[in-house]
Amino acid sequence: MATKAKKLKITLHHGLVNRKPNQRATAQTLGLRKIGQSVVREDTPAVRGMVNVLRHLVTVEEAD
């Protein structure tokens, strides 16, 4: 029986204006463009690393 993969809900709370290019690119890779926009992604080490780059711009919570 397969276990259910955990998912993360990532919400952008601050704009990307005047941010470093790597932070803008990371937000784009996650699919975040507008303030208040949320995306649901699998909880993988790669996604955790991207969230770490944007930790001061986003909020993260577990999604079902």
Automatic annotation (TrEMBL):
Keyword Amino-acid biosynthesis in record: no
Gene Ontology CC: ribosome
InterPro entries, alphabetized: Ribo_uL30_ferredoxin-like_sf (IPR036919), Ribosomal_uL30_bac-type (IPR005996), Ribosomal_uL30_ferredoxin-like (IPR016082)
Family as reported in the entry's similarity comment: Belongs to the universal ribosomal protein uL30 family.
Residue ranges of domain Large ribosomal subunit protein uL30-like ferredoxin-like fold in the record: 8-58
Name listed for the protein in its UniProt record: Large ribosomal subunit protein uL30
Keywords: Ribonucleoprotein, Ribosomal protein
Encoding gene, per UniProt annotation: rpmD
HAMAP family cross-referenced by the UniProt entry: Ribosomal_uL30_B
Subunit structure: Part of the 50S ribosomal subunit.
